[in-house]
Every structure is written in C-alpha cells, then in structure tokens.
Amino acid sequence: MKLTVDCELNSQLLGSQHLAQLLAKAKLTQQPMPLEALVCNQYGLVSEPDYPIAAIAASADGLDVSNAYWLRADPVHLVLQRDSFSLGEPVPLQVKPEYAQPIIASLNQHFNQDGLTFLIGDSGAWYLRVVQAPGIQTTLPTIAIAKNIYQFMPQGVASAKWLAMLNEVQMLLHEHAANLARESIGEVAVNSIWLSGGGMLPSAIRSQNDVNLLVADSAFYQGLAKWADVPCQSVPDSLECLLDEAGQHSHVRLQLSELQLMDDAWWSSWWSAMLQALKNRKIQQLTLNLGFYEKTLIAEVKPLDLYKFWRSTKPLLSYLQ
C-alpha cells in the first residue's frame, strides 16, 4: 500500500522525534505553496482566481451548493500591532453554536439585502454564498497568519466594495453580545472574518491521480472525495485499524486535523506506527505533505530508505529554511 499523509505542522510535530527520524531517511522537496493549494493542484483544480475550496467543502457539509458562488468566511481574531493588524492563530477560531448562530444571524440581517448569505455547515465551518462571482481574488489564511494583513486582503476589480463590506463586518462584531460572552470566559473575540477559497462547484470529473481511498474528518476532504468519485471514511483510532480496514486499497490518502495532532499520545502513536509499518513493509511508500504556513515540505520514504544509517537526525525546522 502507498500512504499519503497531509497535515499542518504544529508545535508538537516540530518537536517530534519520530517525525524527525522519518525525515532523516526521506527524499525531501519543498513547494512554495500552502498545503491546501498543493492538494488542489494534485486533484487538477484550477485557481480561477481562487481554488474552489469553499464550494467543495460546502457540498459535503450539509449545504445545497447549487450554482451559487461560495467563499469560506472563517471567524478570526485580528491582532492590533503598532500600526497594522495581523491575523492571529488559529484560523478558523472554534466558535460554539450558541455564539456562532447569533453572529451569523446578525450578519445576515445586515447583508441579505446585498445578496450575501452567511451559513454554518454541519462541521461548524462558516460560509458565504453570493449570487454572482464577486470579482475578487482572496488569500488562503495559512499564507497570512501572523503577518500584516494589508497585502493579503481581497484584490481585484471589486476589491473596494469588499473591503468596505469587511469593515462593516468588523463594526457589527465590535461589542457583539456573543463576543462579550466569549471574552467573559477567556476566549478571544471574533472580530472579523477571513474570506478565501472562492468559486462555484467545478464539473464533476474523476481525479487523474491514483488515490482510491480518502480518510479524513474535514468537510473539504470529504467534498473532494465526493467530487473526485472516490470512497471516503473517517479517521480511525489507530494506524493499525486503518491498515486492516483499507488493505484492499493500493493508495490511501490520510488527512490529520489540527485537533487530532493536539493530542500528544494520539499523534505520537501514529508516527511510531508509521515507522513500524514501513519496517514491516505494510506500507510500501509513505509520502508526508507537511504544511508550514505558505510552504509545504514533501517527504517520500520507502522501506529500504530506513537503512540509510549514515543520515543523522536533524531538527525539523532546519528543513524549512
């Protein structure tokens, strides 16, 4: 079996000895694009001007995408710097339904007359449906995190209109009752939204790559499987379960979410199991796509690579310079 693993690097993974051991044996390449863009490229999706991530995700998130134009409208916290704002992590913020619903209701009450409809998917993700293409190009949030947001705001012929709209959103959210409630329990305010992944649902075509099973809990990957006409299942409790359940598939693509990777014991057991499965040749080729803000580190490992004893283990950050 070939196994491809997609995940965003976090502080735990950056310090993982198991992952460092794998990278020391791997063939490494780096792509100057965020992980989501890499995945879209590998499935033949075109940026026109955005990758249609929102529509693909919404199609698997309990929403009727029809022929509308969709954008992700991630709830975010903008951090005031000396003379600018930066995009704080995480993106999106995790917002409980009792806070998300009144915020969405307020946004719809204000913007419905402009043909804008905000919606919450079954996963809790926020979306914006518009009646026609908005005439803007957006930036994936992983590119903008912790940076001055000025250069990453919507661009294009209608950018002035949309920048004004985002200013109105921020005014609506300022001292919103739901935000006051969040801050009272120590959570940061949702003081803006981040638009990205705009587009209509592309025509359904079969993917040109050889992945024949997607394993993921995210709406985007589930929508991608639906669009590419390949089976999809949830992430099991262990890699051993995955290898047992997916044994008939020649190439499995696994997406590990940020929430899963925050569990130290969980991800540590997965990485050590991957190393053991390579040694036992249950995995004939392991590809790790490791997203790190605006770039992606790609590591390819085969069983024989594990015997490259002359390669020393290095800190993971040294591969990301």
Q: Total strand count, please?
A: 13
- Gyration radius (Cα, Å) is 20 Å
Which sequence of SSEs, written as H and E, runs from N to C? Answer: EHHEHHEEEHEEHHHEEHEHEHHEE
Given the C-alpha coordinates, what overall shape results?
globular
Please state how the strands of the largest beta sheet are arranged side by side.
2-13-12-1-11-9-10
Number of helices: 12
Strand content: 15-25%
- Give the structural class: alpha/beta
Helix-residue proportion: 25-40%
Describe this structure in words.
With 321 residues, this protein is an alpha/beta fold. A 7-stranded mixed β-sheet has the order 2-13-12-1-11-9-10, sandwiched between helices. Helix 5 packs antiparallel against helix 8. The radius of gyration is 20 Å and the shape is globular.
Give the SSE layout.
Elements: E1 2-8, H1 11-14, H2 17-25, E2 27-31, H3 35-42, H4 53-59, E3 69-76, E4 78-80, E5 85-87, H5 97-111, E6 116-120, E7 126-130, H6 141-144, H7 159-173, H8 177-184, E8 192-199, E9 213-215, H9 219-228, E10 232-233, H10 239-245, E11 251-255, H11 258-261, H12 264-279, E12 285-292, E13 295-301
Parallel strand pairs: 1-11, 1-12, 9-10, 9-11
Antiparallel strand pairs: 2-13, 3-7, 3-8, 4-5, 6-7, 12-13
Helix pairs in contact: 4-9, 5-8
Which structural traits does this protein have?
321 residues, seven-stranded mixed beta sheet, four-stranded antiparallel beta sheet, 13 strands, 33% helix
What's a concise summary of this model?
The protein has 321 residues and is an alpha/beta fold. It has twelve helices and 13 strands. α9 (219-228) links the parallel β9 (213-215) and β10.
